[in-house]
Amino acid sequence: MRPDDWHITEDLDDFLARTGDFLRSRPALHTMQLTVTETLRTRGADAYGAEAPVFGRLERAGEVCATFFFRTPPGRLNLTPLAPPEHADTLAARLAGLGHPLPGVSAEHDTATAFAEAWQRYTGATPTLRERHRLYRLGTLTPPEPPPEGRGRVAGERTREQLRFWYREFAAAIGEVPSADADSWADTRFSDRRVTLWEIPDGTPVSMAGVTEMIAGQIRVAPVHTPPHLRGRGYAGAVTVEVSRAALAAGATEVVLFADLANPTSNSLYQRIGYVPVTDFAVYDFSGAAPEVG
Asked: How is 231-253 classified by DSSP, letter by letter?
């Protein structure tokens, strides 16, 4: 396998024409690639910022076996699973040779680790493990018993400011810059009816859960957020059940979500309501040296 077996482009239409079947073949594992490229396709190449995203694919005997993208906030390389690890080495060599700077990588755990190690060899950059996530797929939905007081309600116009505030709060809690400004995120989500609130009997919202659009039969639950002072009361589980049930009713064949492995409470919660582990992902940040064009 040679570095130039990785084909790189900024042309989204060409990328999707060549990789669409591959991405849809494993919609749970490829959920990030599917949802990000769909956003770019429907809202334009500047949906995540002014700098054009970069896409790539690895082909063997005319068949796509891996893809990636970067230059979407927070800018890290997002890579589908690779096997064997040598493919990560050839990709690192290719991107380093082209002088592409990368702030980090996010991928299935072994893939991310192999790429981080290869990137260090080729560029001298130091990889630091930032976080580990577990990907879950919904099995049998199991609502909590007893449920907390209140009900689920699809977010609407009157909760716009609430969504904006909670989105900023969620982004700060996970240490990320929002992938879009809070105003446009809230506007898009409530206009598309893709955020559900859990509200207590007096009508006060206490938790939220969003979902992505359905692509290749899968919907991803994200984000799930309860303000810190309201946690521990079952609101997150209740609102996650609400959006999961709605996703199934909409015809989703797979409902997935990510949980931070540093948060045992959320991992336990999702398993109690019916989500089963698929695989683990890792996020590395790179610091130090940058690639040189060569």
From this structure: TTSSHHHHHHHHHHHHHHHTT-S
